[in-house]
Specification:
This protein is mainly α. It is built from 9 helices and no strands. One of its GO terms (molecular function) is transcription cis-regulatory region binding.
Length: about 200
């Protein structure tokens, strides 16, 4: 059972995620405290700055979509692991929170450059490094032979995984692709990637 402190931290994260999504990075810590039904002092006891709270919200969203360190320990065949990973990754990018956060980071990059940096560190950079670690391990084990440094190979696959559906969504449009079409596209991306990097199943 979660302690009282842990419960309050979850309340703060839930409130912050909602308000960052609805109002952008400009939301006040007072508003977050009010929605979380805790004091502002309690918010700062858990998160020293709004930057730290924002970054934690992004990381929590990644974990909720299973974009986390469990990837490296997955013993299943590499094609299955990568296909499921990029599907979850694309689903995360398509979430309302991710779309709005990306748009906020871009629109405020001139006035709040730290927002873009926080977004990069907690989202894209963390995901790329995690996938790179997995690919490097599979390269060491002889399952693949990377043609690029592991981090570049990870970025290659993640950019492929965006697909039409993500670019359209970030412009406020629908690609009208079904889930089955999305999965078929992502499966093909993984097949092309593994063929290029000489997968040895």
């Amino acid at each position: 059972m979660a302690t009282r402190s842990e419960q309050k931290k979850e309340q703060i994260l839930g409130a912050a995620t909602q308000l960052f999504f609805e109002q952008g990075y400009g939301v006040s810590m007072d508003a977050i405290a009010d929605l979380a039904q805790v004091s502002k002092q309690t918010v700062y006891a858990h998160f020293k700055t709004k930057d730290e709270l924002f970054e934690t919200c992004i990381r929590a969203k990644c974990v909720a979509n299973q974009i986390d360190g469990r990837l490296v320990d997955d013993p299943r065949p590499i094609q299955i692991v990568l296909t499921e990973f990029v599907y979850r990754f694309q689903a995360l990018l398509l979430s309302d929170e991710a779309c709005q956060t990306f748009k906020a980071a871009v629109s405020q990059s001139d006035t709040h450059p730290q927002l873009a940096q926080l977004y990069l560190n907690a989202g894209p950079r963390m995901t790329t490094e995690m996938l790179a670690q997995y690919l490097a391990l599979k390269d060491q084990q002889g399952e693949i032979k990377l043609l690029l440094p592991a981090e570049d190979a990870a970025m290659q696959l993640l950019l492929m995984a965006h697909g039409k559906v993500v670019y359209w969504a970030y412009l406020g449009q629908s690609s009208e692709e079904t889930d089955a079409e999305r999965y078929a596209y992502l499966n093909a991306c993984v097949e092309v990637f593994l063929r290029a990097h000489q997968c040895n199943p």
